[in-house]
Predict the 3D structure of the following.
Amino acid sequence: MKAVRVHQYGGPQALTLDEVPQPVPGPGQVLVRVCAAAVNPIDWKIRGGYMKDVMPLQLPVTIGFDFSGEIESPGSGVTQFKKGDPVFGTAMGTFAEYVLTGLAEVAPKPASLDHAHAASIPVSAKTAWQALFDVGGLTAGGKVLIHGASGSVGSFAVQLAKAKGIHVYGTASGRNQAYLKELGVDEPIDYQTTKFEDVARDVDVVFDTQGGETQQRSFAVLKKGGTLVSIVQPPSQQEAAKYGVKATFFSSQPNLEQLTEIARLVDAGQLKTTVETVLPLEDANRALDLSQTGHARGKIVLTLD
């Protein structure tokens, strides 16, 4: 089968399209024929070697974490899926014609979506869900500041927060202000012209998808006992203590119940996804370069059909 692999860390053109053996599912696993795979920032970070200290990998390695496709073969003991069932989920190595995944990471595909749009959902939506509710502890009536609210994770965070009755402040560039309103942001903030701390005050949770100076300035907008949740870099515990808040660095975990509920929300029309660019698997390097610019609205997806 064809697979996009990293043989040595580097920039553009560091990936190669290789021919590798097709994996065989073990007990409690399924082999999925991949129809589409979405790009996430971790993909170009792995390619560039930025993750090698915190996520050591044995090279060469097939990258990619999101997929939508069809069950090719269930492993022994698997009764909930059969060959041909349309599914979506997460796994390591989705930039390939086939991928193995465990039962905690695969669910029936939303019936209302094609594979390209379904592939754009699992990592981003689960990350947003877990950051806001599992880690942040947000409940109805709360307030959240979402940085990068027009991005793939941010846009899901906005929609999930609004569905729970939460007041949303969201930052994005000027060109994305109308999009923030479409998503349901209560108070859109153009970070190019307005300091977010002049608008957002006493929020329960800051969802940080940017890091750096943005993260540093975010402590001041939290109410006492609030939480800063970052998916890009560990926040300062000293700053958290100074402001009397909590601060957490977080990455999403497998959760079948949440993935299934996310699919239900999609089919009910309560959760929408935006796919900005669709490219063939052979253009994986170009897809990662586009992701690395940090200016994509929604997802970049590789297709194999």
Summary: The mean pLDDT is 94. The chain has nine helices and 16 strands. The longest strand covers residues 29-38. The CA atoms of residues 30 and 260 lie 17 Å apart.
